[in-house]
């Protein structure tokens, strides 16, 4: 088990290296010249050239990549062109809201979607099943920003139950922190919930017709135990896979959600950096997101072995 | 006479399907006394498994529908609530299934699966249940029970898995054990071991057994009384010795005739293995006459028109055939 985990962690190193190369070259290939942007409209070609040299943009691609990668390994993501602050500092300032949003959304999605899917499978073909799956299709088809504004309008403006927007740090107390995160989490989680609920239902349907479910019933196990112990653990592998895949969508969705609810997180930072062509910041954030995604996938691979003892690597 | 442990009266298990009602079990009546081993035999699709599953109400309803009465210790199981039924399953009536490879949950340890019944029905703590699970594994003859208890089903062979199933079934000392083709999926040497184990445990635990099988060799080995089923109905019932010596129903004779004799092709008396021609009739059509008439060499117009009632043909011997001779006449 531990050997497997160590091997998997080591295997993420080349993945991250390739990701880093992509991140770096993407910006190198993107249209628009940062030197020209910084120099402004009034600059002469000589000014632009000077700025380009000072940023090191005139040197060969591989040399620049090598230097950049070397600094990243040491934990230095460079300095923002726009604010002159180290990128690491800027990310640190913005990481808590985004992380909070992700965690709350993940918990919310799992605690809603899995029971939804399990119940739909148990009551397959009934009205309950159709309602659950109908809600799932709805969650699938309405975009985050529409749900976000609808929620904010209904629960914040009209009913005045929750704050309209903004973020309260965790250090000011969990209730205040959570209050600001509920609406964004629901908005962001809609698609995710739909996805997980559907795969849970499909996976459970397959498992519920298995012989060992009949055995459990013959032993006198109750319905809850049959569904959530005997069946769900067997249905877990596809569900865990989808939870992991969906997490990528969550990262993308967080950017939009943070804009809708004015949450000062990494998503906002990313959008602002792209608008300003603040290359070091863009690189840093994208690299961080990729890293998180790689870690999530690693966690999923490890979870497989927890849920299904037959899986051994 | 004391009341039987289990008495099944006019059991009918029907399945509603898009193209008609499937009468899988169509009015079967039998009883099992405490400590007795009763075999239900018949070919595939005759309703023996459905009968056994109906007793524990494991038939999904709908599309299934169970009617009649199943009296166990005086209570009609068909009238119990789901909760009361759960207290009986795995406790006073337990079941062993045909497929040991798929009947155990692949993601739970063997110990947990044995312990589950103990925790459910005897309120044992997890650690007591595990201790008892180790005892049960030892009882069913699994070596190194202390290690095996922490293993998963895929780490065990087919024979060992069936032993685990037996351990699960016997953990709560049931009064009735229903074994649905417990040896069919195992190879011959393991079959003998499992049968020996069941006989041995039956002596120790004193449970009655309903053995569902199509293997007449198994019947001869372990059963005291035999019920022959055909197309969802009982066609003959007799103590095992009488049935083998003096089968009354043509279907029973056909079944007995189709058992291959070991080495018969080597001794020079090479005979073609007898078979029963034709197939089991569709259970979706209501059959007016004898259910076996379509495949019976001796069938007459009477057989095709009127269903024969179960008649006593000798002591404890009943058969449903117009032409089955009574014992006195046969002798």
List the helices and strands and how they pair.
The complex is a heterodimer of chains A (313) and B (331).
Chain A: H1 2-29, H2 34-39, H3 45-55, H4 61-73, H5 87-122, H6 127-141, H7 144-158, H8 174-208, H9 211-218, H10 223-260, H11 266-275, H12 279-307
Chain B: E1 6-17, E2 20-32, E3 37-41, H1 48-55, E4 64-72, E5 75-76, H2 82-88, E6 93-96, H3 100-103, H4 110-122, H5 126-139, H6 145-148, H7 158-170, E7 176-180, H8 188-205, E8 208-213, H9 216-222, E9 225-230, E10 233-239, H10 240-245, H11 250-257, H12 301-305, E11 311-314, E12 317-319, H13 327-330
Parallel strand pairs in B: 3-8, 3-9, 6-7, 7-8
Antiparallel strand pairs in B: 1-2, 1-4, 4-5, 9-10, 10-12, 11-12
Attribute tags:
heterodimer, A: 313 residues, mainly alpha, MetI-like fold, 2 domains, 12 helices, 0% strand, globular, B: 331 residues, alpha/beta, eight-stranded mixed beta sheet, four-stranded antiparallel beta sheet, 12 strands, 34% helix, disordered C terminus, BPD_transp_1_N (chain A), MetI-like_sf (chain A), cell membrane (chain A), membrane (chain A)
**Could you list the spans of chain A in which at least 5 consecutive residues all have pLDDT below 50?**
none
Oligomer: heterodimer
The end-to-end distance of chain B, rounded to whole angstroms, is 29 Å
Q: Output the CATH class name of the largest domain in chain A.
A: Mainly Alpha
Rg calculated over all Cα atoms of chain A: 24 Å
Spatial arrangement of strands, main beta sheet of chain B: 6-7-8-3-9-10-12-11
* β-strand amount of chain A: under 5%
Largest interface: A-B, 20 and 27 residues
> Over the alpha carbons, how many angstroms does the gyration radius of chain B reach?
21 Å
State the end-to-end distance of chain A: 9 Å
CATH topology-level fold name of the largest domain in chain A: MetI-like fold
- What number is the mean pLDDT of chain B? 82
Helix content of chain B: 25-40%
Structural category of chain A is mainly alpha
Write down how many β-strands of chain A occur, each being a DSSP E stretch of 2 or more residues: 0
**Main sheet attributes: strand count, strand direction, barrel closure of chain B:** 8 strands, mixed
Strand content of chain B: 15-25%
